[in-house]
Structures are given as structure tokens and as C-alpha cells.
């Protein structure tokens, strides 16, 4: 086994207490981010695999596909050879506490970038199943099923556009930070293992 020089400035990851949540003020719960990060850096995979998994999960966390994000992250990670566990953990950036602010941010950014909102969403008569040849654009009004679907797209499209931009930035940043963190942890872990082996 090759020992790593412990004087090289590498700092190990401290062990965190057990428990997935910590109690905040007024009895509210919030994710235990230290334990979450510790789970990621201790995944048994190469630094690029873990970092790519976190990057994928971070990107998907900003998409509006509620209930499918974890499944999508696992499938994409499997296809590209990234750490599936890392991707699934990273998706939890979007959780019951952060979901509201994330969706509001992605929606408003999407509108700023030019995606039409629900008020300006329009559909054609043909797409609504009206007689052929009457492909006239009409504004979406009322509460009919077709209008509700169009209004839903009016919210979904801005969220997808805004989420893609923010998600891409989050993916780039998280890849770099995770890659460095995993390398530092694995080096520190190898150093500790080497010290134990030489003292026994």
C-alpha cells in the first residue's frame, strides 16, 4: 500500500453525527447537509464517477419533474457510467424545504429569458380538436380541460428553461467541488489506513 504524506495539506472529512435531519427553531426540520456531503464523498467509486453523478443530480434537481427526478437521475447516471448513488443523493437539493424557492426562481428566470407565461399562452383551434381548416390562434381563457393543459404548459415551459440554465451552472460548480472533495477524502482515508497498518 502506498502511503500519502499527511503533511501535504490534505484535510480529512470529519465524521458527523447520525441522523438524517437536525431540528431547527420552532420544531422545523431541515436536511443535515454535513451528513449528506459525507455520504457523497464516501461513495466507493472514482472521483470522476462521483462528481459526474452529483453534477447530473444537481442539474435534474432544478427540473420541474416532481416525483420523477430521482428515477431520471438514476437512469441517466447508469447510461453515462456515473455514480448512481451520487446522482440520487444530489437530487435532494430539491426537497420539501427548497422546492418552492427553486420552482419560483426557475419560473421567473424562464419568463425573463423569453418563455411565455400562462397568461400569454395561446393554442390553435386545430390543436383543440376544432374543425379542420380553422387553424386560428385564440387566447386561452376559461377553465376547460384544453385550456388548463395549455395553462399548465405556460408554467412548465418557463420552469424548464430557467431550470436548464440554473441546473447547468449548478452541475458545473458541483462537479468541481465534488471532484476535489472526493480526492481529498480518499487521500486522507488512504493515509489513515496506512498509518494504522504501520502501527499494528
The main sheet orders its strands as 1-2
Q: What's the average pLDDT?
A: 75
Given the C-alpha coordinates, what overall shape results? elongated
Q: Gyration radius, to the nearest Å?
A: 23 Å
Sheet having the most strands: 2 strands, antiparallel
**Helix and strand sequence:** EEHHHHHEEH
Given the helix and strand composition, which structural class is it? Answer: mainly alpha
- Summed up, the helix count is 6
End-to-end C-alpha gap: 14 Å
Quaternary form: single chain
Strand content: 5-15%
Give unreliable regions as ranges. Answer: 4-29, 120-126, 133-144
Structure summary, number of beta strands: 4
Number of domains: 1
Estimate the helix proportion, in percent: 55-70%
Description:
By secondary structure, this protein is mostly helical. It has one domain (33-199). The protein has helices at residues 33-41, 47-61, 69-80, 84-90, 99-112, 145-199; strands at 21-23, 29-31, 122-124, 137-139. A two-stranded antiparallel sheet has the order 1-2. It has a two-stranded antiparallel sheet with strand order 3-4. Helix 2 (47-61) runs antiparallel to helix 6 (145-199), helix 3 (69-80) packs antiparallel against helix 4 and helix 5 crosses helix 6. The relative contact order is 0.18.
Amino acid at each position: 500500500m502506498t502511503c500519502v504524506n499527511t503533511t501535504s495539506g490534505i484535510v480529512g472529512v470529519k465524521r458527523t453525527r447520525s441522523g438524517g435531519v437536525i431540528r431547527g427553531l420552532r420544531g422545523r426540520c431541515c436536511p443535515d447537509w454535513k451528513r449528506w456531503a459525507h455520504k457523497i464523498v464516501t461513495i466507493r467509486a472514482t472521483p470522476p464517477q462521483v462528481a459526474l453523478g452529483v453534477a447530473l443530480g444537481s442539474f435534474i434537481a432544478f427540473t420541474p419533474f416532481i416525483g420523477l427526478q430521482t428515477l431520471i437521475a438514476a437512469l441517466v447516471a447508469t447510461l453515462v457510467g456515473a455514480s448512481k448513488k451520487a446522482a440520487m443523493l444530489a437530487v435532494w437539493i430539491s426537497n420539501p424545504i427548497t422546492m418552492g424557492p427553486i420552482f419560483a426562481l426557475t419560473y421567473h428566470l424562464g419568463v425573463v429569458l423569453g418563455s411565455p407565461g400562462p397568461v400569454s399562452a395561446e393554442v390553435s383551434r386545430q390543436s383543440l380538436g376544432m374543425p379542420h381548416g380553422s387553424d386560428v390562434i385564440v387566447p386561452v381563457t376559461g377553465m376547460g380541460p384544453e385550456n388548463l393543459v395549455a395553462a399548465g404548459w405556460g408554467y412548465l415551459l418557463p420552469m424548464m428553461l430557467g431550470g436548464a440554465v440554473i441546473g447547468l451552472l449548478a452541475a458545473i460548480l458541483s462537479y468541481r467541488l465534488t471532484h476535489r472533495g472526493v480526492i481529498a477524502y480518499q487521500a486522507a482515508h488512504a493515509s489513515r489506513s496506512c498509518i494504522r497498518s504501520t502501527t499494528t
